[in-house]
Amino acid sequence: MKQFELSTSRQKSTQIVIGTEIFANQIEIIKNNFGSSCLIIIDEHVHKLYPFVFETIKSNYAKHTLCIIPSGEKSKSLTQFNDIMNVALNAGVKRNTVVYAIGGGVTGDLAGFVASSLLRGLPLVHIPTTLLAMVDSSIGGKTGINHDSGKNLIGAFYQPELIVMDVDFLKTLPQKEWNCGVGEILKYGCISDQTILDDISKGIDKLDQTELLDLIFRCAKIKSDIVMQDELESGNRAFLNFGHTFAHALESFTKYQRFAHGEAVFVGLIAATWLSNKNGANLNMDKLLSQRETFNLQVSDLLEHIDELTDAMMNDKKVTGDLLRLIILSDWESPNVTEVTDLSVVHDSWKFALSHI
Ligand SMILES: NC(=O)c1ccc[n+]([C@@H]2O[C@H](COP(=O)([O-])OP(=O)(O)OC[C@H]3O[C@@H](n4cnc5c(N)ncnc54)[C@H](O)[C@@H]3O)[C@@H](O)[C@H]2O)c1
Question: Of the residues 103, 118, 182, 280, which has the fewest C-beta atoms closer than 10 A?
């Protein structure tokens, strides 16, 4: 088991624990530190696959309230938020009721926002069950739901007390969801630790449990270190968006139907790395392109839509004024922000990515 602490100047510190078969023990610890009631918010698939999770938590509390969340992005909605609020308030939650968020990033973002706003803030425990949620979404305190105008537009920064990453949950993860995590893992390799790109080059499915645990630990630590420097994303936290402006444009142009987020991130990483080379870097594209077979994406039809994809980048919420601000690399592990004035380079980056994936 590996453990470390994420602390920020604005909020309490978070314990992050990573291991196998650690779930039950950690619940015991958290129970001893907070109230005797809990609100369990759990993804419906996870609830069906792992009935012992609910049973274990329930058996540790005098009073529990259960909310089962339909799987999928549609649950990050005001309607779902409101439904949970109704259930929780009718059940009489108190200031020391512990909120458990159990599932992938959807459940974590939604339940985190519930915890941040119920009675102005309840103690929160994340139990991420997808690779993406372990290496990325459960860490850093970004919580939120979607609005008709866009993704993640309603939310708060709210740090959990504890994040329990039990890699045993990953045994049932479908291939597409593994890829989502791999997209973000490659991002950490690009911006912070290029040995990750080498370690994952043979395919994440080839790692044994110890190697996988170590990889998750290193990624979680990278994110945690960046968040500790810049919790509210006024500086270096933006580096975590490497490849993401391309990815968000791809997701929004295809109406969130065709690509999972991590798949879009993979395309975005290729485009952003190629653009970095056009800005003077000398990065070996094969370090990323070697993952093509893992992702197995069909994207060549999108070559006809590069203008629309480039336009969609201008609608990203990270655009300020008319300037497109992108994260690029001057070398592996050396991200920086650039303001793009010549959109033809962006156009060519799309062309490279869509014709080489
Ligand atoms: N807060 C942040 O900093 C942050 C960062 C990145 C992404 N996100 C958000 O995360 C969300 C995506 O998260 P995600 O990729 O985890 O998706 P998700 O939560 O939708 O989970 C993906 C699928 O996996 C299933 N699942 C979960 N655990 C499983 C398990 N152990 N075995 C089998 N199936 C399982 C779920 O039911 C779902 O169908 C997006 O809403 C995105 O905006 C947030």
Answer: 280
